[in-house]
Amino acid sequence: MQLPKERKNCACNPRFNLKVKxxxxxxxxxKYRTEPCLELRTQNSELGDRSQHAxxxxxxxxxxxxxxxxxxxxxxxxxxxxxxxxxxxxxxYLARWPxxxxxAEAPGNKVMGYIMGKVxxxxxxxxxxxxxxxxxxxxxxxxLAKKLMNLLxxxxxxxxxxxxxxxxxxxxxxxxxxxxxxxxxxxxxxxxRYYSGEEDGLDMRKALSRDVDRKSVIPLKRPITPxxxxxx
Length: 232
What we know:
The protein is α+β, with helices and mostly antiparallel strands. Helix content is 18%, strand content 28%.
């Protein structure tokens, strides 16, 4: 399908658009993915709370990641548990899987967080993968990571028709593991010495609608080594 011309006032030119309010599900335009950006609006429920962060929560914009964002998101990666990569790595994802690379902004174009992923695999292993998701410290506890994860899951489910979404997390990162479990992910398997420093990684998965029998989330009974992974 030939895509319409991009809007002149937006450099992102994503192939889909959606708007949600707090507590609602994300809806994706599957047929016409042509709108230039995604806006996610959250309303402050407590009248009179006009702090800076409250104002920023009132209007959060989530849009496709652009090349210029590579120069602006360093502060989001300050968390020691956030994996960082070289510039060519980010550019590869931006070129190959643009639908899976999004950034969240507060008013004033302040980067709040981002998510980066891809789609890969064959047959019943066809799935979406979360390579990185992180939120700046001052914007946490606002369910922003959940909204970014839901977006990637919807793309994997409704557009690319994947069987599941997976991600890897350090076995010692208990807060992240608990967050993913609240989002419906299960520990599918342990990967021995997956991370630098000889730390094990946990492969966590969430079945999508195409996996009717939920075969993709039946946990393995033994740990594996990185050499045994079917895909990277």
